[in-house]
Amino acid sequence: MLNLNKINVDIGPVGILKNASLNLNQGEMVGLIGRNGAGKTTLLKTIMGILKTKSGKIEFENNELTSLPSEIRANNFIGYMPEDRRLIPSMTSEENIMIPVWAVNIDDWQERLKWIYKIIPEANELKDRPSTSLSGGQQKLIALSRALMVGKKLLLLDEPTEGIAPALTRRIIEILNNLKKEGVTTLVAESNAGHYDKMLDRTFIIERGEIKKK
Hints:
Elements lengths: L1 E10 L2 E11 L4 E5 L6 H9 L6 E6 L2 E2 L5 H6 L2 E4 L11 H11 L5 H11 L1 H5 L10 H15 L3 E5 L7 H16 L4 E5 L11 E6 L2 E4 L1
Parallel strand pairs: 3-8, 3-9, 6-7, 7-8
Antiparallel strand pairs: 1-2, 1-4, 4-5, 9-10
């Protein structure tokens, strides 16, 4: 479904990803595990087209994405949840969830929103609240909901449990486990694989921009 072949990415003069290769099959939940600064966020941003590749190839459903802009990749129904949430302060929680609907042609958005609220009922409870009034963990739930709105085919999660209270960490893990049972294809980048126990089908380790199979 997703195949990265020898991806190299520089940020300024510094090489961040070095011949990074990774593959993801439909319906899998795959872990990308590494310390802070190892290159996890760079890899996810490169898949989304936020960062450009210096060399290498990215294929998704047998289509090459390497040279396509990020909005075209989102049109392929790839959802991305950044580590820092990136909610728009002037919007309510539901309006933040709806951003992909306004940016990408999602015909079944009403059914999709209903499904998201079923999977994450907390998001429904928070829908009318300003995003600035939410705790860090609640913001993570809304960011995950937003990613799910567009991530019909692939979900990219950057440190979904980083920096939040233990109770909400357990809740997010529970949600991800339910998504796995529903067959949602997910690549999750984390510094701590222990949160996921036996949820991951496969695990890749990233160190200094190089990826190794665990």
